[in-house]
Records
---
Amino acid sequence: MTSYINHPLLKKDAIESRLYQQILAGDVLKKGNTMVVAPTALGKTIVAILVAADRLHKVKNSKVLVLAPSKPLAIQHEASFKEFINLPCTSITGAVKTDERIKRWEESRIISATPQTIESDLLNGRYDLSSVSLIVFDECHHAVGSYSYVYLASRYVQESKYNLVLGLTASPGSDKFKIKEVCENLYIQNIVVKTEDDPDVKPYFNPVEIEWVRVKMSSELEKIKKHVDKALKIRLKALKNMGVIKTVSVGKVDILNARGRIQGEIARSANPDKDLFQAISILSAVINIQHAQELIETQGVQTFNKYVARLRKKKTKAAKSLMWDDNFSRAVKMARDAEKHGWEHPKLREITKILKKELGESDGQTKLKTSRFDDKSDENSSKIMVFTQYRDTLEMIHQKLEKEGIKSAKFFGQAQKDGEKGLTQKEQKAIIKSFRKGEYDVLISTSVAEEGIDIPAVDLVVLYEPVPSEVRMIQRRGRTGRKRTGRVKVLVTNGTRDEAYFWSSIRKEDRMKNQLIDPDVLEELNASATERMENEKHIKVIDRPKQENDFPIVYADSREGNSKVIRHLTEMEIDVKVQSMAVADYQVSDEVAIERKTAKDFVDSIIDKRLFKQAQELSEEFKRPLMILEGDDLYSGMINPNAIRGSLASIAIDFGISIIPTRNAQDTAAMIKRIAVREQNGERTPIQIRTDKKPVSLLEQQLFIVESLPNIGPVNAKNLLQHFGSVANVFNASESELQEVEGIGKKTAENIRKVIDSKYLYFQKEIKEKKLL
């Protein structure tokens, strides 16, 4: 007989009583900030719900914040919490308007949200985390670098009166330093690992059977690969003769390291040797060839041909040299012929064979073995997922299955590629819904379905290729075995990278498990997290009341919304206001605006010719424009250092823009603060923000001037000019005359006259200072 958990805040008979989930929740509540590492099907969300119910019951009027990396996952968590807890629950994502987000935050006890949206709202002072008694970081392995999880964890331990952090993940990674970074960033003191082999888990866990399906590369592909190998070997020999590499037996990592080393030599030299640039070009070609090799070995000629088509469009010396190379050209011609003749990678035939066998076949037409799709519910329908690394391969598999009469759906991300639009979240949701109902036999997906997408009861997962990442392998496996025994089939081409990736993922997974249970690692993490939490408590978090304060103002463009610079500025007693700006990234006065460029962005903007256009707009819009150049790796790219020096000289001399170097984001924030303090000189005066670029035509200029008046938008500006006939007449009109214009009320008229008639306060201040002198 099934027993259920009873709790004042949990709905009756809603959560099945599973001992391991209760133990996990108890560990979090007793031991403090915890990372729970468990396979997808073990119900980590239920653990979060149990912990949330306890915190909300014991800490009166507090809130729980659940964070997830994507909008669909955030909404999915909202639904889960609503299903089990008797308290107001909502979701906050970028799709929700600002006023509605504030309302939802104030009215709800449980908020499921995307981290970027919460970060933006906190930076703009819309609410704070002081009343949050539990913060849940789902897929917490994302908490590295500048990802929003890092800032939110820091902000939480500073602001909240009742700290408790819960991180959830199927795998934090195999690298000890990555695990440590995640734990330190989230102030994790305790790691709990649950696997399908644990005695208390086994009764609830459906085993996953993994089968490695080996295929032999076809003779046609071997011939194509032979020519690609020759093109690679020639270039590796050249690099060895140049002293760039020691042996021709090198992998992708070795080539990337060599390129970084050569780029460093170029950066350190005022007049770099031409051989260094030649080496960079050859190294780039080697990287392209290595990728082409991988596609031939593991994907097939169609994917290879599409990659070559993209290479043809590139104008780099490395890409052109490949197109002129006899060996590579032969490989390209053979691959084109192979595709015309319908020659496929053996994997494509094998995957078709597997799916036909699974779905059943009769008289050349696929049909289901049973009437499993007659019942459209998840409980009674079997589903198959196919994962592949490349969207080109996804399209190839889809076309093959359609020809074979197997109904399949393509599932990929939102990015556009080669003219094909990505799937919107709405379209993704519709595809998953159709797949759940049984309208498709197979769902073919890229990595987008590895994490967080709610696809229950997938009985078979087929991996077109192994991936070297243990995180991704674990996540792909986690798509099956949720409601019955799961199966995974992994296609491996003998003697290729497939085998290397297969063994790499296994080694990394074993290493991850060993490190997670290492007592020395756990003790080190506990001490580190405790120390950091104590330190953070002494850091002052700037409260952002709705009324104005006396802090210097810095306006930041909305595109800088997730940058570390804004985070650091808020910690430096700066009133940061994020909004859309037509020109510059930051503005501190009517005359001073700052364009911030990292070293990489500066070089990229030279290449794509954005730099001088941005510089021109900056110098035209502001009297004293500035450019902050952030980072010390300006000369580490492939572009000639003299081109960079010439661009810097042009920015300073031709456009009159002062260039200020900074080391990193924190240094940039400190510099912007100093500029703001100096420019505003203790006075909090309104700053005219350029939301549009300066007008060019006379009509545009007239509208621009009138629109600068208080509460006047484009419509009212046009009405005023039509009524009075000129800008001068608008400015000379009395309050009563202004009110004759449609849309201009008494208050607006008063404010317009006040701005026009008021004395210039800075002018009065200058007179006083001169008298004192």
Note: The two ends are 91 Å apart (CA to CA).
---
Amino acid sequence: MKRQSEQALENNLVQQLIDLKYEGVTIPDEAALLANLKSQLEKHNKQQFSEKEFKKIVNHLNKGNVFEKAKILRDKMHLLKDNGTSSYIEFLNQEHWCQNQFQVTQQVTIEGTYKNRYDVTLLINGLPLVQIELKRRGLELKEAFKQINRYHRHSYGASNALFNYIQIFVISNGVNTKYFANNKHQSFKQTFYWSDSNNKKITNLSEFTNEFLEPCHISKMICKYIVLAEATKILMVLRPYQYYATERIIERVKNSNKNGYIWHTTGSGKTLTSFKSSQILMQLPEVHKVVFVVDRKDLDFQTTKEFNSFSEGSVDGTDNTRALVKQFKDDTKLIVTTIQKLNNAVSSSRYASVMEPLQDKKMVFIFDECHRSQFGDTHDRITKYFHNRQLFGFTGTPIFVDNASKNDKGKRTTKDLFGDCLHKYVITDAIKDDNVLKFSIEYVGRYKEKINSNSYVDIDVEAIDTKELLESDTRLEKIAEYIVNHHDRKTHSRSFTGLFCTSRKEILIKYYAIFKRLKQEGKHNLKIATIFSYGVNEEDENANDEDVFTTSQAAETELTYETKHSRDKLEEFIGDYNKEFGTNFTTKDSQSYYNYFNDIAKRVKSREIDILLVVNMFLTGFDSKALNTLYVDKNLRYHGLIQAYSRTNRILGDKKSQGNIVCFRNLKKATDEAIALFSNKEAKEVIIMQPYEDYIKQFQEKYKELIKIVPTVDAVDELQDENETLEFVKSFRSLMRVLNVLKTFSDFSHDDLDLTEQEFEDYKSKYLDVYEGAKTDKEKVSILNDVDFELELIQKDEINVAYILQLLALSADKDKDAQHKTKNQIVDIIASDPQLRSKKELIEQFIEENIASGFTAEEIPDKFEEFWSKAQQEKLAQLCDEEKLDKLQVQAIIEEYIFSNQIIDLRDKVSKSLLEKQKLFVRRKTISRVIEKIENYLTTFLDN
């Protein structure tokens, strides 16, 4: 049987869509697209438009970028008709989503920077809202994704830019099919498989079409389950488990008074699910208010911020109980608050006059992470106060009989408080779907350090079960030294950050002092910060930790003394933080301490802090994609263990291959029990990374596959055509992925591999040459154009401009032969690193002009800074002269990038910087070209 061609796959899909009641139409170009749009809008709005009226509509539709067009799509347009009357034009019926007009077409051709022909387009009311790109069976799905990104650059924004109205993309090779929102800045990891309500993936294109592309369903996804994220100005689409959970909640509110809970694993996006649920619920006429309840003030702030990031101003923060009560009284439909403030509102007599009239109103309460604080009197008091209420809980780690703690109400489970589980999406589902990463867990005990020396790290965790040994200064010193020695390896030379959780504040204080002393001794330059609670919260800080060896009464007595001690220490540590970051925080003011918490959270996320020392804070509810390593010196069990581990396994690019857990205690049994409880009995192999030896074996197998294609480095140059080159790219890329994982193991050494380090570097250079060729030959239609080379995997983080200057400084006082050797070494480094290649010409120019100039080692950095600054200004002036740009506006664009590491609405900003008026078609081409030049400029001068 012959392999199915891409054209046959496309034709079969179009016929299937027509069978699903799409109207098949032929639309070869934009003129036909506009003519069809006019007739469809007339049909949908039940009125006719003159050419002049339709031109007004097209001009209205032509405004803004993708995000702004998504708003236009969902809004109505006021149209002044030729006869002087007014009319409102609807582009999408959101309330009755099945009552739109559905069409399918194929091979629409749009000419922008280049002419592009799109595979299959779904039109709703004449607008292209779904685009499907196909690759023949056997090709990587990622190639279709890369092709869409190319269309973003070349043609989606061309002419009237109607293809910027696309809401959802679908990519398929027949056997694998994924969907994603129209956001050109996302990675392939943000593409999703559709699934059924039991999380069984639907990958086959035919089955996916029947389920996902059925007219009513795709229209519902666009109308209800696309989120317009205001903070980032991007579109987001719900994943299938988020969709099913939201649907179950809405259905239960509409049809019953029953409660329920959603079990979605930590890191799967519960905030987005709860936001969308809340947003839909607050629009139901029978619902008076939706109250989203969290159990700590920091989560109140964080959740409010996240909700408002999805829809600006959707939530007013409740700073105190009085503000909360005011929101209950006014027309605020969605409230975010802590359970403590909610308890105050219903318990205090001072608020009775406002709160009591609300007792019979329909209230929907959504509890975030519905465990711990909701299992006491507070929960009962709230639920008894409101007579006409429904409760819904979200949790990644439900309380079952096995992990329930006993209080005066007995052992209470999540089911006892919230009733039925409405939808499950457990950690094994998330790992299978590539929504979270696996964990690599190392138990560090009697450990022979193989790297750099033959010394032993004899921490001896297995036999320790007494407080005296656990907290001995010798043991803490060894652990701190181990972390200092291995942190760069774990975090890929600090591309990521780490969290270190300890058993008690007193132990944290000791660790902090050790790290500080080691830094003063010059043994590391890690940026280490800490935060813990004090005062009234101090008892609670220790209460959940199993390492509290004293009785409750003794602990309370001890805290009276320790509170003063730990607060003084924290004030001292905050002083160090203030010196490091130029801040002015203190514990003497509760708001300042709260601001300190938020500042730490921000700096961990932006990778300005290398290791954050904590006891319990940040182990739940804190999401940072940049965090990849957790060091553990405390006992954890069940939901506490999974929550803590899950701080590390958020997806972030290709280099972050797993969450690293380094245990300095024997938590193996506790880990196995927690995994079994929160997934299934066979889940350990799915959730935990394989042993080091297994990855060595994988690497050797990948290497054998590579040398079948290219037996030697020079054989890469002998590859006959692009298909053979593609096989080399795929094989070497696969090898790099395994090496990326291996490098995070403390045991890793290149000596364990059949491929030497030098040979790997040589193959890598050839790989980068292929990448450069595919990148620069843009005019040529090539199968390599849409291949993801996954360059993140080969960037040497420790090698940057500063490193090169250091090499130059070392050779400053050497003879010419030594200087020449250094120059060649630098050229090789630049050739092997994709980030440095953009700087190649300038660095080599500096070397040529200055290596023999007689500068001392101390003078070289300043001379290079002077050279670099001058080159930067010259290149900027050259760019502005060549493209006739307003230099001040271009400088503002660059300053925005320096400040926030991103540029919002870049296309619009570039458009405003053009000094000369241009026709629309010419302007679009110019803007695309200028954007590319600005991006190259930023890569050269601002990315180290």
Note: The domain at 692-762+780-790 is CATH 1.20.58.910 (Methane Monooxygenase Hydroxylase; Chain G, domain 1).
